Amino acid sequence: MTSPALAAHPTKLRRSLGLWAIVGLGLGYMTPMTVFDTFGYVSDESGGVVPLAYLFALVVMLFTAISYGRMTRVYPSAGSAYTYASETIHPNFGFLVGWTALLDYLLLPLVNALLLRQYFEAFFPDISGWVWVGGYVALITLLNLWSITSTSRVNATLLIFQVVLIVVFIGLAWGALNAGAGNGTPFSIEPLYHANVQIATVVSAATIVCFSFIGFDAITMYTEEAKDANTVPKAIVLSLLIGGALFFVAGWFAQSLFPSVEGLTEGTALPELAFSVGGMLFQILFVAAAVAAVAASSLASHASVSRMLYVMGRNSSGPIGRRMSYVHPRFQTPAVAIVFVGVVSLFAAVADLDFVFSLINFGALIAFTVVNVTVILHFAVRRREVKTAGQIVRNILLPVIGVVLTVLLWVNLSGEAMMYGLIWLAVGLVTLLVMTRFFRRKLRMSLEEDEVIAEGDEGADALLPEDRALLDAADGTSNDK
Questions:
Q1: Which CATH number belongs to the domain containing residue 17 in this structure?
Q2: Using alpha carbons only, what angle is made at residue 209 by residues 203 and 210, rounded to the nearest 5 degrees?
Q3: Which of 67, 149, 206, 314 is the least buried, fewest Cβ under 10 Å from its Cβ?
């Protein structure tokens, strides 16, 4: 039984986010400055074609982004892949998908806190990492508790700062290349292709940089806070294309300046790249932009994973789930879930960055693969929309390509990522067995205010397109009231 204190509070999130606010949260999550942090490692792994690795990853993500956009229209809930798998396949399977996705969603706020700890420890080695992590995590948690609108505004300010510095870097790099540095010209195709390029190394590098694109999918977490349900599919594609363009262009100029990474520190190339084009002053500003990027990603990732925990809690009948689904009566934010993410992020004071990175892409690529599969099952199998060539392309061909490409990246993950990812999945399976009493108890699935759009095997799935249009129109009218 739900306690009176919990029952008395509202259970819905506030619809306050417009298109560009959501795009900004997605870009903040993606952290455009990452291209410089990882440049040395990706250049070495790809054989000197960083922009090609980003382009390959972008193509993979575009197919998956289309699938996310389509499924968020069908199930406009904040649960993302967890919701789509639960509704389309089975709640038990959906729980495992959500559990696996938590591996990257829950760890990214921790990664950002860990990066900030490393930045400040380099300047102040005598101060304990707990001081930096504790203060930083408390600030990010309070901003997320306050309201999603305030989170969005702070994120936008930090995002603009880092994009301006990236544009300045590109301008300075253009001048340096014209002056004879690196390849000697900004128009060389060497950063994209040269005689020693091997597809295997490009794919291997793409599995690394796909981490940078995690964020477009997290946009679906804001579905229940978007002013208009149609905003989210547009924001998914826009954030992916804008982020991909920033990664590609910045990677192109960095690779043009440094055809070889000899002399660059593999894990900390960002300050060295900045110093090479603009000297000490620009290096300071560029590092400041990197700190801003970490803060923006912290805000966006903390907000999105708390929404996923909120939806998973809303669909649970246990005491833990009920508390995760608690919405603060004044701020209308998922308060308990936000605080929980903050507590997990505190482990950044002792965590190892390489170990955490090895876990993140495992969960993301599984979620991407499953979302593509749900498109096929929902539109081609359930609704049998395979009568025309256009329907076959949209409902079978495009998601199948998405599945193949994401699986290709997944099987190229490191052995360490596979091992720890499978351990996490096994823990999730044990948790599911306990929750369902070895599948004797059913998991509850609730989309709250949007349930009418996806009632199960009947309802929306059985509607003709013209009937669905009427339902969508009615839903839009109700949301405007």
A1: 1.20.1740.10
A2: 85
A3: 149
